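Holo prediction. Input below; ligand is FE2/S2 (inorganic) cluster.
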Amino acid sequence: MIRNDYIPFPSKVLEVIRHTQIEYTFRMSFDGEVRPGQFFEVSIPKYGEAPISVSGIGPGFVDLTIRRVGKVTNEVFERYVGDSLLLRGPYGNGFDLNEYRGRELVVVAGGTGVSPVRGVIDHFGAHPEERKGMTIITGFKSVNDVLFKDDFKRWRQQMNVVLTLDAGEETPEHRIGLVTKFIPELELEDAASAVAIVVGPPAMMRFSVAALLERGFREENIWVSQERKMCCGLGKCGHCKIGDTYVCLDGPVFNYVKGKTLLD
Amino acid sequence: MGYRVSRETLDLWLATHAADYEIWAPHRFVGEGCFSDTDSVRYARVTKLEEIELKERSHYSFKEALTPASQTLFYFTQEACTEPEPPVKGAILLLRSCDLHALRRLDDMYLHNGPADYYYARLRERVKVVLLGCAASCESGFCVSMGTNVSENYDMSLDPVAGDFLVDCKDADWAAFFAARGCGEEPVTPAHVEENAVKVTVPEKLSPAVAKASLWNQYDKRCINCGRCNFVCPTCTCFTMQDLYYDENARLGERRRVWASCMVDGFTDVAGGGSYRKKNGERMRFKVLHKMLDYKQRKGYQMCVGCGRCDDVCPEYISFSGCVNHLDEAMKEVQGK
Ligand code: SF4
Ligand code: SF4
Ligand code: FES
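Structure of the complex:
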């Protein structure tokens, strides 16, 4: 008998973490296998479904960081601890940590793009023996838009952290400027063998990858995660198709050698 | 096994099988065509021979029999989601050769692109196919160019010949039905065409680079992104989820999937307001390359079956086959030759 993948399952809201006015993390009960970079379809009857990346994974839960935009995500904001949400998933390939083991690692993430890589950062932050040097360059619009503030405290102990704001005043914690500005100054042992992960809005990804290549990274050592309108998550609805690729099945994480061919 | 079957016997066959199957066949809806004073030929459930349009190729494809334009996936209450009852009957589809080839593409999308689709699979197991022979080519089809003019994987074929019908029956029970009613045995090869008025050539070296050609720009204004070309296409499968709710508080309702079109606004919108392919020319390029390039890269054979329906339905007289025939030039343009 074929499984009915369209029927969602209820998942309890265990905790709600407010990052900003419009961005909350919902800690949701979940017991199955899941990887950073995968996504769930979160549904609220009446409003429909939205694809949300997993921003954290732990025993019996997943974190879903949801931004208050669009119809679906607004309704979600009225749910609190004890309520439940209907989920389907996880979908997509997610990040394969083995690709980064034993290597020098750079993560460049913009805005909500930090969500899908948060699990990767956490893992290699907690396991420095599994990698060489590590730097994260994360960009947000302003100081009020910074996500995962508590995580940054921990990450600063574990790796090089560049936290930059598009505009505002420089502080001991915040640099000013787009993420791309900090790529040329990356201190690396060997750019040619270092690996990088880039996640964020399309233009930010384009310029960041260009800057990494300029800095000496190899195309095959760069991974990107694509944002698309994922609707079914099952390779059926066609909304996520780019060329011969279905982002929901084959991605959303792509090695740049493949990722650079995904144009539309 | 081939038989010569009379109208009466075929009607009896239809009536008998209508008990266990929805029989889907082309049906003429008089005066309902897109253009004034024209009829629309669409698939409908039939039980009698007289309801079947045997001559003209249908304007809409058979796909609604397997993937309805709007299909309820489940009903929800606050606590639970419940599936609708499975279909009671199986389905017999009367298909021309191009459409029988299209069925393979639907199968590949719904059963083999990612996990198998529950709703499609449970009906598909109970589908049988009757091939409608094509004694002459339709006007706009290019099945010969696409290699879809001949079909062999049918349960039965059906060709009207001089007041009777010739059938080639691969289904043993159906063969027994005709044999028991005294139908004469004779060798039968379903009629098929060897040449169409429309021919297309897909350049062998077609590549995604053709996206940069100027060819696509002309569609920015000409195409009005109505999406009809997708809705009539037997190989277009895209859908969008839609929730309907029955009460004010949205505690009771249903989720449906409805046909979607890559030509229509909103297809690529992401939460937060981003969208891709805003120009109609970009959408035309996306559709044409899906049909003639991307699908083949993924599955090993072309998606378009050359039925010609998209050309017939377009209110702006945009020709898909015409566009395909410009791909060669467009490739040369981007390669700077
Ligand atoms: S090509 Fe024709 S049928 Fe298709 S969307 Fe454009 S105007 Fe409509
Ligand atoms: S693209 Fe046009 S000709 Fe090809 S299968 Fe679809 S409707 Fe038929
Ligand atoms: S999200 Fe439906 S095919 Fe990928």
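Residues 280-299 of chain B form the longest helix (20 residues). That is the main takeaway for now.
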